[in-house]
Specification:
93 residues; two-stranded antiparallel sheet; mainly alpha
Amino acid sequence: MTDAQTALRQLAQRRWRMAIMLSVVMVAIYFGFILLIAFNKAAMGALVMPGLSVGIVLGALVIVLTWGVTLFYVRWANRHVDGEIERLNAGGA
């Protein structure tokens, strides 16, 4: 196996590790929210202000965190993965 192939394989492994880690984070956030709904309805139904419950605020937070995790991954991939692929394509293995 050439150096470029080894570097590409290592890059793919790093990318998969990051993807799995962020997937675990998202599953924990989502299932934490669902478990709160299932087991603590009273707390989720508590009003923050008239017409706005804790459940709605946390649901919106889940959506915002999803965007945040996606943004984190895109920036990480742009900094680490894309640059490494350009370097490998240029023959700089």
